[in-house]
Amino acid sequence: MNPDKFEEIFLNLRILVVDDVPIMRLFVVNTLKELGVKKILEAEDGNAALTLVEEGLMNNKKIDLIVSDINMPNMDGIDLLQAIRKNNVKEIKSMPFLIVSASNETSKILKASELGVTNYILKPYSPANLKKKIREVFISQND
């Protein structure tokens, strides 16, 4: 995919950011805005995220990518990923999923890989690294 085409895709993406820590959500949201993403939704845990995913599909506003932290109360990132991958609706089941993790969570990253995570990024990360990881998600989707 050529870089110009990719930049156009950024403008039309609908991305769901899931993290229980408001300042972390804000960091991701601001980074996405800097990249040109206009349609950004936020959820504080996996339960809220799953509701937004299902509502989005019902309202013809499908989410194009989930960026989720691993560690959250109620429903963590691994459980959210599992719920997405086990969903009976194809558009939900195949939804690209980028997981955010601290580097000491190797077992959770392996579990996410087994569940079919699209990509992952380790904390701390830069806006440039987040952009690179999102680009990789959509390049892999178009191969």
Describe this structure in words.
With 143 residues, the protein is α/β, with parallel strands linked by helices. It has a single domain, classed as 3-Layer(aba) Sandwich (Rossmann fold), CATH 3.40.50.2300. 52% of the residues lie in helices and 18% in strands. The protein contains seven helices and five strands, in the order αβαβαβααβαβα. It has helices spanning 3-12, 22-34, 46-58, 77-85, 90-93, 106-115, 127-141, and strands at residues 14-18, 39-43, 65-69, 97-102, 119-123. A five-stranded parallel beta sheet has the order 2-1-3-4-5, with helices on both faces. α2 links the parallel β1 and β2.
Q: What topology does this entry show?
A:
Layout: H1 3-12, E1 14-18, H2 22-34, E2 39-43, H3 46-58, E3 65-69, H4 77-85, H5 90-93, E4 97-102, H6 106-115, E5 119-123, H7 127-141
Parallel strand pairs: 1-2, 1-3, 3-4, 4-5
Helix pairs in contact: 3-4, 4-6
Radius of gyration: 14 Å
The structure class reads: alpha/beta
What profile does the largest beta sheet have?
A: 5 strands, parallel
Distance between the termini: 9 Å
CATH topology: Rossmann fold
- Whole-number mean pLDDT: 91
Query: pLDDT under 50 segments (min length 5)?
Result: none
| CATH class descriptor | Alpha Beta
Question: What's the domain count?
Answer: 1
The residue fraction in helices comes out at 40-55%
Strand content: 15-25%
H/E element string? HEHEHEHHEHEH
The outline comes out as: globular
What is the total tally of β strands? 5
Number of helices: 7
